[in-house]
Amino acid sequence: MSPSAQSIWKDVEQIRSQAPLIQNITNFVVMNNTANALLALGASPAMVHAPDEVEDFIAIASALVVNIGTLDPNFVTGMRLAMKRAKLLKKPIVFDPVGVGATPYRNQVSRALLDLAAPTIIRGNASEIMALAGLNAQTKGVDSTHGSEAALDSARQLSRHFGGVVVISGADDYVVYQDRVAVIGNGHPLMTKVTGMGCTATALIGAFVAVNPDAFQAAVHGMCVMGIAGELAARKTPSPGSLQVSFLDTLYQLTADQIQKTVKLTNQ
Ligand SMILES: Nc1ncnc2c1ncn2[C@@H]1O[C@H](COP(=O)(O)OP(=O)(O)O)[C@@H](O)[C@H]1O
Ligand SMILES: Cc1ncsc1CCOP(=O)(O)O
Ligand SMILES: [Mg+2]
């Protein structure tokens, strides 16, 4: 079934009623932002990265979100253990290759993690998706220097190689799986002035894939809700500080009617 306003809302209701536990191994910059976004959506976040406990924790979680934003060797050990165990237990993995392409360390670690345990869904900006696919893409640290459509071929290649869903975020978001592409036109440029909005998108996708076994649908639903909440929040404020708060409030209060009236989703 193609994703639609109705299927988005069904998953939002599932998340609100089930409150799935989402294990996050994520960066120090966004831990608070993404935990609050998951709570506002209705999920139950836990930021757990110690190598001594990640394997036990994934056993009780419904999905694993791995984000390489503030990488160090201890994090990498935790990521490897958690991803391997998640695979074994058939728990979905969502991977955010923050800043890949910026340094050889990020490239090596990302590639090794993908080879160790192919994620269910990968979400990055255009430069990150292109770098992950092996292109010598210019990246500006954690920000993209390309429009999202420039990474479409790279996303298809990654999806074929790892067998999972690939999301490219940007002014338009693309969700790619094999021959399928969905385009989401929601969002607002002000979202790029709040740190961690991409990481938040990845974390929200983690909640959707925890309640929906169709990973393509889950990724589309996550990006639609992210974009709709950002767009509605930006109608209330012109500045980034208050956008951050308004985004959480909008997410918490999101209704079926708002989704129906705001969603800009094209299934290709
Ligand atoms: N120019 C834009 N217009 C509308 N929405 C945007 C724009 N740029 C980013 N977004 C939205 O902001 C969120 C974060 O995406 P992005 O900025 O691409 O991630 P990252 O922070 O990882 O680079 C996504 O939901 C995306 O749709
Ligand atoms: C600024 C920064 N530096 C290391 S991780 C991080 C957060 C990046 O978040 P996002 O990719 O969502 O903008
Ligand atoms: Mg990012």
Automatic annotation (TrEMBL):
User: What EC number(s) has UniProt assigned to this enzyme?
Assistant: 2.7.1.50
Q: What domain of life does the native source organism fall in? A: Bacteria
Q: What does it catalyze?
A: 5-(2-hydroxyethyl)-4-methylthiazole + ATP = 4-methyl-5-(2-phosphooxyethyl)-thiazole + ADP + H(+)
User: What are the coiled-coil residue ranges?
Assistant: none
* Requisite cofactors: Mg(2+)
The keyword tRNA processing belongs to this UniProt entry's keyword annotation: no
Q: Which GO terms describe its molecular function?
A: kinase activity
Sorted alphabetically, which InterPro entries does this protein's record hold? Hyethyz_kinase, Ribokinase-like
> Matching SUPFAM superfamilies, A to Z?
Ribokinase-like (SSF53613)
Residues binding substrate, per UniProt: 47, 196
Annotated pathway, please? Cofactor biosynthesis; thiamine diphosphate biosynthesis; 4-methyl-5-(2-phosphoethyl)-thiazole from 5-(2-hydroxyethyl)-4-methylthiazole: step 1/1
Binding-site residues for ATP, renumbered to this chain: 123, 169
Report the sequence similarity comment from the record.
Belongs to the Thz kinase family.
Any idea what this protein is called? Answer: Hydroxyethylthiazole kinase
UniProt source species: Nibrella viscosa
